[in-house]
Specification:
- This is Response regulator.
- InterPro entries: AAA+_ATPase, AAA_lid_NorR, CheY-like_superfamily, P-loop_NTPase, Sig_transdc_resp-reg_receiver, Sigma_54_int, Sigma_54_int_dom_ATP-bd_1, Sigma_54_int_dom_CS.
- GO terms for molecular function: ATP binding.
- Keywords: ATP-binding, Nucleotide-binding, Phosphoprotein, Transcription, Transcription regulation.
- By secondary structure, the protein is an alpha/beta fold.
- It folds into 4 domains: 117 residues, Response regulator (Rossmann fold, 3-Layer(aba) Sandwich), CATH 3.40.50.2300; 166 residues, 3-Layer(aba) Sandwich (Rossmann fold), CATH 3.40.50; 67 residues, Helicase, Ruva Protein, domain 3 (Orthogonal Bundle), CATH 1.10.8.60; 105 residues, no CATH class.
- It contains 21 helices and 16 strands.
- The chain has a 5-stranded parallel β-sheet with strand order 2-1-3-4-5, with helices on both faces.
- Helix 4 links the parallel strand 4 and strand 5.
- Helix 2 packs parallel to helix 3.
- It starts with a strand and ends with a helix.
C-alpha cells in the first residue's frame, strides 16, 4: 500500500488521520513540524502528503515547494480553515492536487478523495480535462499558459467556491465557465448564463430574482428568476462590471446570505447556485474608479482566473483554425502557408471571436472558387501587413549589400553578415526624415525570427538533428522547439 505523510502540529488531527487511513491499509507517518517533515523526506518515498497550512516553524506553502523539489511525484493535499481558502488556492497554483477544510465534515468524501487521488495518475487527470474540453468544443492547443490555467480550473471546479474570470472580449470566458461547471459535481444541474450589460436594470433584476404576478405592468404571471432556476447548478454572470449599483447591492446580499426575494414579494427564498462571474475590465481598477463595489469584488473573487489573449498564445492559432475548418466536413479547406503567416503575425484585438469571423469570411468567399485559402480571401487590414513589409524592403535596399535578407545564416561568417546588414538597415531608417513605427516593428520582428531560426539550426547541427538534445542545449522544452520550428519555418 501507499506511504502517506501527515504534517500537522495538532496532535489530535494527526492521530485521527493516522487511525482513519491506517485502518484502510495505508502506511501512515505523522510529523508535527517543518523540521521533522524535512528530515522524514530523506528517509523514504511518499505517494501522498497531507500538509497543514500553519505550522510552528514554517508554513504549508514552503513545505509544498520543498516537497515538489525533493519528491515531485508525491501528490499533496493542503489542509486549511475556511478563513484561509485564498492560501489554499495559492497552494493549488504551486502544484497541490487538492485542499480540504478543517474540521472535516464529510469523512467518507475525504477517504474517497484520497483513494481516487492515489489510484489515478497525472495522465488520468489530463485525459479527463481533454474529454471535458472536447465535449464543449474547447480547443486546448499547445499553449503552456492555457494548459496550466485549465489544470487550475479543473482542480477548483469540484469546490463550492465562486470564481472570477477576467480577460479581453472574445477570449472565451463563457466556454471556460462551462468547463468549470462540467468538471464540477454540479454537472448534471443547470448551467445558466446572463449578460449583465445586455439588459436594463429593471429587466436584469427580474431576470435574476424573478417576479410575482402583478408586481409591475406586464407581469401577468409569476416568473422564477435565474438564482432560483440554477439553485443547485451554476449561474454565470457575464460582464458583471456592467451591473448597476442597485443590482450590485442585491448581488452582494445574496452572496452573503444566500437569500433573495422575487420582485414584488416579501417572502425570502434560498439559493445554492454557484456563481462564476466574468468581466473584460479589471474589477480592481473598477473599484478604484468607484464604478464597482469593493465588498462585492471580495465575494466574487475567491478564485480569479485570467484568460490569456490570443496574441499571447499564438501557437494555438493553427489548432483553432483546423477546428473551425473541421466544422465544414463537406469541404476539404486548407489555408496556404502565406495566409497562415499573415494570421500568425496579426495581434488579434478581438481574440478567438475575431479569428472565427475571419475564418468564416475566408471560407465563404472562397466557396465555389477554391478550397485553398490564399491571402486574397483575408480582410484588407491583414493583407496590408504584407504590403508594409514590401515597402519597408524597398526603402532600405542598398546595392552594396546584395541580398543579405534572403540569406539563411548557416555559418559564422554568414550570420555576422546578416547581423551587420540588419544594423545597416536600421541605422539607414533612423536617418530617414519619415518614420513609420509599425514598419520598424516589423523589421525588428523579422530580425528576431531569423536570428531565432539561426540558433535553432545551429543547435540541431551540433546535435545531429536530435530535437530533444537541441532543446536541452537551447534550455527550452522540446514542445516549444517543435512549435518554433513549425511556426517560424526553422
Amino acid at each position: 500500500m501507499a506511504n502517506l505523510l501527515i504534517v500537522d502540529d495538532e496532535r489530535e488531527v494527526g492521530n485521527f488521520l493516522a487511525h482513519l487511513l491506517g485502518g484502510r491499509g495505508y502506511h501512515v507517518t505523522v510529523v508535527y513540524s517543518g523540521k521533522d517533515f524535512f528530515a522524514e523526506l530523506e528517509k523514504k518515498q511518499y505517494q501522498l502528503a497531507m500538509i497543514d497550512v500553519r505550522l510552528p516553524d514554517t508554513n504549508g506553502l514552503e513545505i509544498l515547494k520543498r516537497l515538489k523539489k525533493i519528491q515531485p511525484a508525491c501528490k499533496s493535499i493542503i489542509m486549511t480553515g475556511f478563513s484561509m481558502v485564498q492560501t489554499a488556492i495559492e497552494a493549488i497554483k504551486l502544484g497541490a492536487n487538492d485542499y480540504i477544510e478543517k474540521p472535516f465534515d464529510d469523512i467518507d468524501q475525504l477517504e474517497h478523495s484520497i483513494e481516487e487521488m492515489l489510484k489515478n495518475d497525472l495522465t488520468h487527470g489530463q485525459n479527463e480535462i481533454n474529454e471535458i474540453a472536447s465535449k464543449l468544443d474547447f480547443v486546448v492547443g499547445e499553449s503552456e499558459q492555457m494548459r496550466h490555467l485549465l489544470t487550475m480550473a479543473f482542480k477548483i471546479a469540484k469546490k463550492n467556491i465562486n470564481v472570477l474570470l477576467e480577460g479581453e472580449t472574445g477570449t472565451g470566458k463563457e466556454v471556460f465557465a462551462r468547463f468549470i461547471h462540467e468538471a464540477s459535481v454540479r454537472q448534471e444541474q443547470p448551467f445558466i448564463g446572463v449578460n449583465c450589460g445586455a439588459l436594463s436594470e429593471t429587466l436584469l433584476e427580474s431576470e435574476l430574482f424573478g417576479h410575482e404576478k402583478g408586481s409591475f405592468t406586464g407581469a401577468i404571471q409569476m416568473r422564477k428568476g435565474l438564482f432560483e432556476i440554477a439553485s443547485q447548478g451554476t449561474l454565470f454572470l457575464d460582464e458583471v462590471a456592467e451591473a448597476s449599483p442597485q443590482i450590485q447591492v442585491k448581488l452582494l446580499r445574496i452572496l452573503e446570505t444566500r437569500e433573495f426575494m422575487r420582485v414584488g414579494s416579501e417572502r425570502p427564498l434560498r439559493t445554492n447556485a454557484r456563481i462564476i462571474a466574468a468581466s473584460h475590465v479589471n474589477l480592481e481598477q473598477a473599484v478604484r474608479a468607484k464604478s464597482f463595489r469593493e465588498d462585492l469584488l471580495y465575494r466574487l473573487n475567491v478564485v480569479k482566473l485570467q484568460i490569456p489573449p490570443l496574441r499571447s498564445r499564438k501557437e494555438d492559432i493553427v489548432h483553432l483554425i483546423n477546428f473551425l475548418l473541421a466544422k465544414q466536413p463537406d469541404r476539404q479547406i486548407k489555408f496556404t502557408d502565406e495566409a497562415i503567416t499573415l494570421l500568425m503575425n496579426y495581434d488579434w484585438p478581438g481574440n478567438i471571436r475575431e479569428l472565427a469571423n475571419v475564418v468564416t469570411r475566408a471560407t465563404t468567399l472562397s466557396e465555389g472558387e477554391t478550397d485553398l485559402v490564399t491571402p486574397q480571401y483575408l480582410p484588407q487590414h491583414l493583407q496590408e501587413q504584407k504590403e508594409k513589409k514590401k515597402v519597408f524592403t524597398l526603402q532600405l535596399e542598398h546595392p552594396s549589400r546584395k541580398n543579405h535578407r534572403m540569406l539563411k545564416p548557416s555559418k559564422n561568417s554568414e550570420f555576422e553578415q546578416y547581423v551587420n546588414g540588419w544594423v545597416y538597415d536600421l541605422l539607414k531608417f533612423w536617418q530617414s526624415d519619415e518614420i513609420e513605427f509599425e514598419v520598424v516593428s516589423q523589421h525588428i520582428k523579422q530580425f528576431e525570427a531569423t536570428v531565432g531560426q539561426s540558433f535553432m539550426r545551429k543547435a540541431l547541427r551540433e546535435t545531429l538533428g536530435n530535437r530533444k538534445e537541441a532543446a536541452a542545449v537551447l534550455k527550452i522544452s522540446e514542445r516549444k522547439l517543435r512549435y518554433l520550428l513549425n511556426e517560424k519555418g526553422g
